[in-house]
Amino acid sequence: MPLPQYPEIQEFLNYLRFERRYSFHTLEAYQLDLEQFFQFLASQFDAPGLSVISSSMVRSWLAELKSDQISSRTINRKISSLKSFFKYLLKTGVLKATPMTAVVSPKTQKRLPVYVEKKQMEDLFYTCLFRMIGREKRKD
Length: 140
Description:
By secondary structure, the chain is an all-alpha fold. It has helices spanning about 5-20, 25-45, 55-65, 70-90, 120-140.
């Protein structure tokens, strides 16, 4: 849902699409993240202007996401979307400072590597070996 009070969002998405050539899925994720953030601002802070947005507003949105049990990985993606957006606003001269400088990304859990048990590997090896031997016998 476009937010008419923030035309810079669409300008930013156009920039990512046409100049940076981001994929459709990345653009979709950025748009969703930005719309969710600005809808939060509208509901909690009466839709402030871009220059009024502070790091405490961003952190309050992130705290709400955390309380909604959103994963750290998803929150980090949303932070990345916001950082890119505000960096774009700095680059285009819309803003003189970004509220994202005081925002820290949450730690994400490291995934443990998945490995194949020794017994499973032996079974696989012998299955392949017997199939190869079976093919050799059929050729003779």
